[in-house]
Amino acid sequence: MDECKVIIMGFGSVGQGVANAISMKKDLIYEKTGVAVKVVAAADSSTSAISQDGLDEKLLVETKKNEGKLSAYPEFGCDTNGVDVLDAVEYDCLIEATPTNIVDAEPALSLTLKAFEQGKDVVTSNKGHLALKFREVVGAAEKAGVQFRYEASVGGAMPIINLTKETISSCKIESIKGILNGTTNYILSRMTSEGSAYEVILKESQELGIAETDPTQDVEGIDAACKTVILANSLLGIDATYSDVKVKGISDISSEAIELAKKDDYLIKLIAEVSPDNLQVSPRLVKRGSSYDVSGTLNMATVKTDLAGEISVIGLGAGSLETASAMLTDLISILKNKN
Ligand SMILES: NC(=O)c1ccc[n+]([C@@H]2O[C@H](COP(=O)([O-])OP(=O)(O)OC[C@H]3O[C@@H](n4cnc5c(N)ncnc54)[C@H](OP(=O)(O)O)[C@@H]3O)[C@@H](O)[C@H]2O)c1
Questions:
Q1: So what's the pLDDT on residue 195?
Q2: Total structural domains in the chain?
Q3: Nearest residue by C-alpha to atom 15 in ligand 1
Q4: 304 C-alpha vs ligand 1 centroid, how far in Å?
Q5: CATH assignment at residue 285
Q6: Which residues form the pocket of ligand 1, taking CB atoms under 6 Å from any ligand atom?
Q7: What is the mean pLDDT of residues 311-316?
Q8: Minimum CA distance residue for ligand 1 atom 5
Q9: b/e 263-294 (16+ beta carbons within 10 angstroms → b)
Q10: Is 152 in the same domain as 24?
Q11: How would DSSP label each residue in 40-98?
Q12: Can you give the pTM of this predicted structure?
């Protein structure tokens, strides 16, 4: 393979980050794999830009930012959308970055299964289909004989899935414990350092764009629970789905509780735990100065192994280029495996 034609499906923060990252790292990808990456289509919720000869990544981002829709891309913009984009152009890999949906996993589920049916590899940052139907989706990739990688779905730029599966593949993973949601970590960190109430910090986090207008998925632990399921399935081989996780968020944590914890040198963190007998997301006390004492929007995870003891990673759980970095790493792995 000397050329890899990609479709970027979903052109928001992450999709645009992928386009920018491909533009920045094309030469590096070629150096590492001998394969030239070409973006042949990019799609948002209702429009796309499609060209078999390749699109200009920077112009895609500019068009989306300035015009709001990819149909405004010069010459190659059109109204083709959804799964139809996968029929409209020849491609090798689908880079999927549509919104996470934990009700019916769409549109990620249909897009991904269709790409597999077409014999294409898929890289995703989406949690919905993995949290609801992990076995079905991974099984479909195996059946189709294609590669499916999803590092960015847990912890954004923080390497956890590939690190655990590949770098420490000699080890059995006994459990994973960590902070898998940056927004709640930010809110709890500021409540701790400033002594302010949850509602005050949440409002400021929304103004800063760190928390969403509807913060439910983050503050009620739903986002972290999705990631818990993905880690359980992919790294511990536990056949679990979203409803198997015990979830409690941070919306009723008081500043008094945080102060009380501080007196004894503890912090309150939203901790996700993945072990054969416990899938849980809940606020927990952690010792100040321990590996769980990371603040701001950072994510962290400690992997407990049989041979290597405990290994901890810390990294940015979100961000346009940051998340794209994990997706490009997945793409590079796919290309290396093909050669
Ligand atoms: N943001 C992060 O830092 C981060 C980190 C890790 C994982 N993720 C995951 O990555 C995914 C994308 O996140 P994001 O922050 O980029 O979201 P976003 O900014 O809301 O962008 C979502 C994009 O998907 C498009 N879209 C919606 N429905 C679609 C459909 N049916 N077909 C094709 N495209 C569709 C939207 O179109 P319009 O532009 O027309 O609205 C938009 O371009 C999510 O699953 C998220 O959970 C995000």
A1: 95
A2: 2
A3: 13
A4: 32
A5: 3.30.360.10
A6: 9-15, 43-46, 82, 97-100, 107, 125-127, 152, 156, 318-319, 323
A7: 97
A8: 318
A9: eeebbbbbbbbbbeeebbbbbbebeeeebbeb
A10: yes
A11: EEEE-SS-EEE-TT---HHHHHHHHHHHSSGGGSTTTEES--TTHHHHHS--SEEEE-P
A12: 0.97
Residues 151 and 7 in one domain: yes
Catalytic sites, residue numbers? 227
309 in the same domain as 327: no
Q: How far is the CA of 322 from the centre of ligand 1 (A)?
A: 15
Length in residues, the chain? 339
How far is residue 311 from each of residues 43, 154, 205, 308, 330, measured CA to CA in Å? 38, 17, 31, 7, 21
The range of the structural domain enclosing residue 288 comes to 165-316
Q: How far is the CA of 13 from the centre of ligand 1 (A)?
A: 7
Write down the mean pLDDT value for the chain: 97
Given a cut of 80, whether residue 124 has pLDDT beyond it is yes
Q: What is the pLDDT of residues 20-72, one digit of tens each?
A: 999 999 999 999 999 999 999 999 999 999 999 999 999 999 999 999 999 99
Q: Which atom of ligand 1 is nearest to the CA of 10?
A: 24
Q: Is the pLDDT of residue 1 over 90?
A: no
pLDDT category of residue 339 using cuts at 50, 70 and 90: confident
Region 282-289 average pLDDT? 98
User: What phi, psi does 246 have (nearest 5°)?
Assistant: -80, 125
Counting atoms of ligand 1 from 1, which one is nearest the CA of 126? 45
CATH code, 7: 3.40.50.720
Pocket test for ligand 1, best of 18, 45, 81, 95 (most atoms within 8 A of CB): 45
Which atom of ligand 1 is least distant from the CA of 15? 16
- If asked whether residues 27 and 111 sit together in one domain, one would say yes
Say yes or no: 329 and 255 in one domain: no
Q: Are residues 10 and 139 in the same domain?
A: yes
